[in-house]
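I'd like us to work through together how a protein chain folds, taking it slowly. To get us started, please write out a protein record for me. Label the sequence line and the structure token line clearly, so we can match residues to local backbone shapes. Once you have written the record down, we can walk along the chain together.
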Amino acid sequence: NVFLNNINLWSINGDEITACWNLYHWRQHSGLPECVSLYNPPLIIYCRAYEAGIIAEDEMYSGIMTSESVRLLSAKKKAYQTAEDYEQFPFIPTMFERVRDYILDVELKRGDTATPLTPLAASLEMVVGIHRFSAILAGLGKTSLSKGYYYWMSDEGHSKQTLFSALLKKCHPMPGDTQELFDVAMQQLQVTEARLIEAAVYAPQWQKFISCYFGWKGLDSAIWWMHAHTKTQTYGAENLEAESEIARYSSLAVEEFKTGAVDKEWFLKAYKEIGKQRWPLVYDAAKFISDGNGHRRARIYADVLLGELSFKEVTDKIREKRDQDYVRIYGLAPLSKKNAEKDILARYEFLQQFKKESRQFGAQKQASEGLAFQVALENLSRNAGYADPIRLTWSMETKQVQQILLKETQVQYDDIMIGLIIDEEGLADVVAFKGEKELKAIPPKYKKDSKVEELMGFRKTLRDQFKRSRKGLEDAMLRGDLFSLAEIQNLFSHPVISKHLEKLVFTTDDCTKHGFYQAGKLINATKTETIVSDSDTLRIAHSTDLYKSSAWPAYQAEAFDKKLKQPFKQIFRELYLPTKDELAEKSISRRYAGHQVQPKQTAALLRSRGWKADYEEGLQKVFHKEEFAAKLYAMADWFSPAEIESPTLETIQFINLKTFKNVDFTDINERIFSEVMRDIDLVVSVAHAGGVDAEASHSTIEMRTVLLKETMRLFKISNVTVAGSHAKINGTLGEYSVHLGSAVVHQVSAGYLSILPVQSQHRGRLFLPFIDDDPKSAEVISKVLLLARDKDIQDPTILSQLQHA
């Protein structure tokens, strides 16, 4: 066994071939039952033995007529890594062709009972020729095809329906097959129109022959529309073939169709070409290529697009059942001809409400409904003529506020005036005034008035916009969305979104122009103005852009000088670049290897940032547009409490979604790399098995270093220095050290000082140049400020420790 398991059967020669064959042959026929099944000689040893004249032709045929050999030799080229290697044996193609013909000649004439060759027929990966296509259809007779596009068939108990359906799917035209030969074969077979359409949908490699046979215009397009919108999964080479064909008809990717995207224009064109009478044949045939849900989804799509399913029925299904398939197609129904803009806005608001209501459910349902919501927005944007959901969102947000501002936003009651206001931060509120004095609250007797309730409704809408726009702008920065000058100007006309935008740094895609946008100009940190032309496209600058611009420190200083409070971390966003070790390994990062984390907290944190937990793949974040996924590998089970030992992080890799090979870090956009590492850094810092691992979050410490230096500059404090991850303070009562990660305080030569933060008091009182909730940064800075002026400390608990020291 040791000898046979370690020898290279492809390179042996002479006496070694004889010895190997004899050992394999002896072991298989040793009389032990397990040896017959476990130690069957591999095909390569049969080939080498036959080539050397050790075995006769009949024994070579016995080596070919095994399930493993048949599967290997019938596979398409490159489907198996070693399949092409057998081409070095000139006798193999001819012998295998005879074996395959023999298997099919017997099997395709079978009845309902399996034959001894049925397992071999099931192992065939590819069948070729019009004559085999005809024989399979003839053998099927009136038997329906098996539902589902892929099957798992054991070596026993193959039904005729399952096996013949599989053979039909695996049957391909030969290079010499012509339309004339196909037409003659079909005429002789006298196959029904419905069965041929089923075959065309089920085995689309034959659809061109069938389409020409019938002469139906639009059949090809209709069949591939069904494949794109019905199947939920494809594999390997099959996926590449489908992607290639679908790309001829649609600009949408296969992955988008899987999530529920619909190409409305493609459907309408195909339906018009094939006609109302013939469409049901294609539609009915599609039920065989997917599970029931896939066909149901396509049926709903078609019914909505054709107007056979009313918009009211779709809306009721969503409200009553929260049916996610109906959510996906909500935006596809024909728009109102009288007032399309009003209809689009109403649908947008309905979808936003659906998403908001999803918060009451568990994480899994929130994730699935969130995906359905995103697909619904994409379908609505296509139906409404917008380039993407982002443009739709900004346009609808602007229309919402325009409609509100066109209405009466102030109500007068005697000497009380109640009105809707938007403050400098962009936050809406309803306030009451008596004369020029603002009241603390709206008088109770006016709260239930219909006009006041309408104002409160406006307030809620604008506050929802405030939250959505913050998140939407940050997402736009992370994606690198480009905006034209006209789009930027339109967004700045929005009274809520403009409050966010005026605090953000913009850059052109090539980073040659950057700054805060004001009236067609970009003004950078040094007050240099650059005119934005109509040909320029802008995006919200990421920390990677600011780093490349060399103006990052200047922007950070200006943020403190102007007391600028950004809607999210931009100027002070943590930056992560590939390290020398990562660049040396090219595609594997081990910067967090060895850190133990809490599984439930880790999974929850990463889910909130777009990561998915998969039973097979673990934690991953997919970037469909870039065609790769970031994967976090760990010795972990993310789906159990893992009470025995906390999971240990290992590597972070980017995997190509098509080739499944690693992507080099140099080929990853710097913005994406930085954000992926930022996500993991957050996990290591917050969900560390031992609590906060202060030494882990290096980029966070760098960010707090800048915050601390700028704060000290503004307060004109000179007795604080930063050394590594510690702030060193030379106070009046002693010398102190504050860790920038954990905020732990030590007094030199005295040890640990217990200074407990009151978090709710720190928030809002201490300036941070971003709205993001970051109590730990506030705690670090407040402790340093406290100890830098230790002579002014009045807290008796802290003073007792200092005096004792």
Observations:
- Confidence is low (pLDDT under 50) at residues 78-83, 149-157, 692-696, 759-764.
- The longest strand covers residues 648-656.
- The chain has 37 helices and 22 strands.
